[in-house]
Amino acid sequence: MSEDKEKLTDYADGAFGERVKQVYDDIAPSEELIEDVTEKIKQQRKKRRAALIKLCAECVGSAAACLALALGINAAVPGISVAETAEDAAHAEGSIFAVGSVFPAAAALFVILAAIFFGLYFYRKKKSNDELSDKNSK
Amino acid sequence: MTDEEIVREYGNMVYKIAFGYVRKTHDAEDVFSEVFLKLFKKKRNFISEEHRKAWLIRVTINCAKDFLGERMDYADIDSVAEKGEPAKTENIELREAILSLSDDYRDVIYMYYYEDLTVRKISEILELNENTVKTKLSRAREKLARFLAEEKV
Q: Which of A121, A130, B76, B142 has the most CB atoms at less than 10 Å from its CB?
């Protein structure tokens, strides 16, 4: 093995890897930078959420907007809780929403959807029973 | 993981890659912010942490390149290089050697030695052939060896 080759082998071994790690260990972000960026991310989310709340309030009525806030916005913006969204909505300027109205509205929608679902289910079941008894009677 | 946990988990990696390109603390911080704001700008469905890591490496490289393209010519870099973080005395030569490597060589050195990624994984992240990564790794080592040998003379 030539001298050059030996040198190259040296640079491929674990000790060299350790030295490279040490070099990169010296290059690290400051705690302030991490905190600053985390805060910027929070602010970015808050802005997007505020824009969505405004859009909801402008486009839809109060009850529907409340539901959209609770269900839609929460799904659209990652990492945001329903309570957090509702709180922002309650504090939004000129907002007609209250924190407490989001949950009853969501519950009301759930009841309505459940009623529709079960209504359809029983209607279809009754229909198929009627058809079956018609066939049997013939 | 919460936003803060994600920034803490991958912040080191993003910063180190960015610094390798821009070589100034403030510029590396700008790239760092941009990468994380991009990550959280919209809902992204990563299938695993490995997937998120690969996405962050690629985006950091792209953001750093864009940053350099916007702010200055690559030729100007040498004049501002190595003004950022203080290095331990024994690592100064190696650090200079690593920072003197071209971007593609430095990226593979970082990913292979610091992130302990396999050649296959590096090839997937950089969208290169495995043999190309091996060649780059070998040439980068060769350049480092040469640089350090010259420094000692």
A: B142
